[in-house]
Amino acid sequence: MMKFLVKGQRIEIVEHEVIASGQIAFVTLKFAFDHAWKPLHKVVQFTQDDEHFHRVLGVDGLSCFLPSELHVGAVKMTVVGYDSEADTTVRATAVPVTLHIRPSGFCAEDIAVTPDLYAQLIEKFKEMIAEMESGSNGKDGADGKDGQNGLSAYELAVQEGFTGSLAEWLISLKGADGKDGVNGKDGTNGIDGKNGADGKNGADGKSAYIIAVEHGFTGTETEWLESPKGADGNSADNSEILARLTAHEEEYQNFLDENKYDQQVQNEEILHLRLLVESLQVEFSAAEMVVLFEYGENVPETYGSKIFTVYQDGIQNLANYINSGKTFCCESNNYALSYNQTDFGWDGVVYTASIEPVSITASTSFAITYQSSATEEGKLYLVPAGSKTEGNTVQNYIYTSITSGNCVELAFQWLQCSDFVTVLTTINAVTPAEYYVCWVGRSNNTKPVVRKVYLLYS
Asked: Which residues span the domain enclosing 40?
């Protein structure tokens, strides 16, 4: 391990060790920062032979691994910090220090790569695909559990106090026989008395369907006839998830061999794969999904008036961006949301929200599919819908609620990724209620492109 102290624009080597070449995720560099550096988003930069390699520490991170791409020779190392909260651009730099990497004698062709987290994730892909394709035990793929068996009409009757066998209960459905009529009196002088009138038939017993309705069943008689089988599990269409799993499994299958000695590339792809597996697992088991935004040709009609932004105190919905030819949401990128510098300048802070309130419970997860050019802390807000007054617009209410603190702020982070990934944020410790959802994109180094925003309920 090597330790460094960053004070002002100077890096001091506190603890040094000999560095051998050919190491992967083994040499740890640990940093301590003075007060001025602590609130900054920090990146460690390594330079060798005019090539630059970066390791993100973020705001709270204090350590990273030495890049595996570095080879024998001198390496310049420095630290750069950015203030993501400042109104103007703030960048801190430090005078570089020199690290020396010595030959190790290691020959990369002599050993085989041991299966690691990547291989485990591939196996998880295969398990999920196999489970979804089997569709056994009455499940629709692996999405949704079998419902509990509904009570039969006989079981409902027993539950409500009937005593007797099933045969006795079936007989009881006909209704009790009417009482015999009273016999007529004998007539005098040998004249027969008239026969007594027959007793009235007893009232028909209630049908099993009526009994079920009286005890809470809702639906038609046809629907009730189906109910004794037990409600089916969630019947969400798994075909899209299965296709995504299969495509990614095939894509990644040969990746490890092709990049077995490039640890940086492996780490990036493993991160993407882990995020994909985690997000699909949640979708896989979700009972319900509520989509707030999804890119595609239907955006102008579906979300044009529902999704809006607040930028520099100006409120615009997607229809305004589309109609004015702004690249934030346009046909050329299939109507994804692009927080670009063209529309918002450098480091524009763009609040984005849906005007439709959604139900939030302890089992809700916020999911967002995006591509980001840098790793950076983001902002996610839940604004209670019940506090909105009649005279206020939804757009203004959401923005003023956030600026006044009438909201729940959740931890959220944009992750640097060259491909689109889905990241989940679990929503807990929130009072169950209806909320408006707002997220913040910035036109700085992150400049994310968002394809889908949705909520999952497990």
From this structure: 2-105
